[in-house]
Specification:
Length: 198
């Protein structure tokens, strides 16, 4: 190989290493490794986006959205068929009661009064689920999955906590906690939508 050929090979290798480093950085949020894909109900999902939920000045958790295909608009995500997942990794300890109440409040803020009334039984079921978990510690994970023809399943550290909660509209109401008109965190919403700031 000529000197020019060797130099070109070095530049290509350096470029590849740089690209890999960029990918590695993109797959980590607040020190939490974010998987590029997930499997829900035997369906492979791709990472749509991930970001940090902050409250006041405290980092509470990292949330990642997984879909069958990437979408950057809330309406498109709600209309998308197939399995879905919101994966959460705690950055600080939070009581399950506090977290459950925050999720229920987020649903109510992003649903009409009629929808909230319709979701009465599902909201009770969601409250019961988080009532079974005393607290979520820093580093612990949970996900809220949509399984087609089954329902919403809450999984804590890899184990389902309760039976599926039916009604896809209810799962979409859960998604709107983060992606709705009044999201839990205005900075987290675009991150989960995969929209670059600015």
């Amino acid at each position: 190989m000529t000197t020019m050929g060797r130099n070109a090979a070095r530049w290509i290798a350096a470029g590849l290493l740089s690209s890999l480093a960029t990918l590695a950085m993109a797959a980590e949020v607040a020190g939490v490794k974010i998987d590029d894909d997930a499997t829900v109900a035997n369906q492979k999902l791709v990472l749509n986006g991930a970001g940090i939920r902050t409250r006041l000045v405290f980092k509470v958790y990292v949330a990642a959205l997984y879909l069958t295909q990437k979408k950057s608009d809330t309406k498109d995500i709600l209309a998308l068929s197939g399995a879905k997942r919101v994966g959460v990794t705690m950055l600080r300890e939070v009581s399950s009661d506090e977290l459950g109440q925050a999720l229920i409040t987020g649903i109510r803020k992003n649903s009409t009064p009629e929808e909230t009334r319709r979701f009465g039984l599902q909201l009770l079921a969601m409250g019961d689920i988080f009532g079974k978990i005393p607290k979520l510690k820093k580093g612990e994970t949970f996900s809220v999955d949509w399984i087609p023809n089954s329902g919403t399943v809450v999984v804590v550290d890899g184990k389902p906590v309760a039976d599926p909660i039916p009604d896809e509209a209810f799962y979409n109401a859960i998604l709107k906690i983060w992606l709705g008109d009044e999201p839990a965190d205005a900075g987290l919403k675009p991150a989960m939508l995969g929209v670059k700031p600015g």
